Amino acid sequence: MEAARIEHTRPWMNRPAAAYNFAFLDEGSKREIRRKTLKAVAIPGYQVPFASRELPIARGWGTGGLQLTLSLLGPNDVVKVIDQGHDDSVNAVSIRRLIAETSGAATTEDTAKATLIQSRHRIPEERLRADQILVLQVPQPEPLRRVERSERLTRRKHAEMDYSAMWLALYEGIVRWGDITLGADYPVMVHGRYIMAPTPIPRWDNEKLHQAEHLTLFGAGREKKIYAVPPYTDVIPLQFEDYRFRKESFDGKACRHCGSTDTFLDETTDEATGFTVYQCSDTAFCRKRRGEELP
Amino acid sequence: MIQVTEHAAERAVPTWTARIRADEKLLEVRGLTKRYGPGCSSCHQPETGEWHSSRCPRCGTIWACRSLDFHLYPGEILGVVGESGSGKSTMVKCLYFDEEATSGEMTLSVCPGDGNLLQASSQRKRYVRNHLMGMVYQNPYLGLRMNFSSSGNVAEKLFAASQFHVGRVRRRAAELLERVEIPLARMDEPPARFSGGMQQRVQISRALANDPPILLLDEVTTGLDLSVQARVLDLIRSIRRELGVAMIVVSHDLGVIRMLADRTMVMRHGAIVEHGLTDQILEDPQHPYTQLLVHSLL
Asked: Which ipTM did the prediction report?
């Protein structure tokens, strides 16, 4: 596939790509990130601290995911970048351009054609294959942070598998509101050992991590943590025996563009009529279903 | 090794109950020592058995507990008295693993395979804390999550024992809170909205959640007014009578000790200066410090 050519509106950005090392980061940094990634894959769900680098985007804007992508990237990779299901939001476009410009790697919007997918807040609707890697950007890697502020204590809780405080948080929701009230970033138990934050993906996407064919990597740049779900790993949402985990329901609703009833839908308002309408959150998948050719 | 009763059926009898024998020491502590500071040659081998303070005059090390030996039988209440700074609270905190003891041995007859629990792994210590001991702190802020519901405070202990059925957990929490006279209508209110006496009672129900054979009570009635004190003491006595729980009651108040304890030990400057039956100690104190304590009783 031909690398996407990008003409910059800002001429000072039109420097030759050779001014940077391949894929922006220096080789020492990439090696550090790869080593920590290998450790993360070896201990599913465990948060591995790493030396997060400075990047031309601010921390908290996807630098963890970007560092993983840049360290994994080879010249033959095809990259897709998604932001909450969209390929064309500002953040996705900037990250995609940075990757393409500094590495010359090809980019695509078609999930099936990508080898490396960096995403924020969504996992694509199309099931990923064993030859694809999903990189998720993580704002808060610590699932216990909502019940324990101290990093020292959360680490100890993970080490001792002392998760009663997390269960208490679920219980409190049931007492107050009659059901489990956690929405996105629903905590999961990985490989029967570590409780993990799956990043703010909707509950809809949780099952896509369970016994998946593909490798999922999680990068938190600001919090300086990498963790992973290797292929064919158990990822089970926390649930009580009498209050089960449930994913979002879109009963009686369909995408206004492709008519889909089996995808995660976004709620918006039709500008012309003022009515509430629904559309696929994964825009590339929606366009593909309608028979559009994706770039 | 005791089997953890995972996913226990509704109110399964804890596995340790079969192991308890009335004539066997439930808890035995030997040479429990807690030191804050490096220590020096003069305080490692004190020339006399009695010190004038728990602080070593040469190196400034604080010896909060100095080689304490004691034991506890099933269903017995052991009282610990002494002035502020005598090491009573440090002692129970060491027993509950809140503080790491400098040296010493602690064995429980219900887990004979473990040997010295003070040297056990942190996972094992957590098991003992959750299943075999309950702790009630002087300050309820240490023992409770003030902004979570009271039933949740009890439930947290049950989750630690791998009970993940909300209906059953709530029934057990209601049962325990009712036992300590918290009205069921208020079981889902946070303890922050409760009075001091009620907070202490929520702490007691939380400590009892997994039917532990031992309860540690650190100055439970201090700071409560007299009528509330009396109700909490009544509650503790009825718990002992009905559940047969052994307790270590720490207090600086001889009245509380007289009302609750079968046996009493008197601590001063980190050491036990006298121990015996409570009546004996109160009627016929031998050590000058105990005599002073008893005589200053109003």
From this structure: 0.80
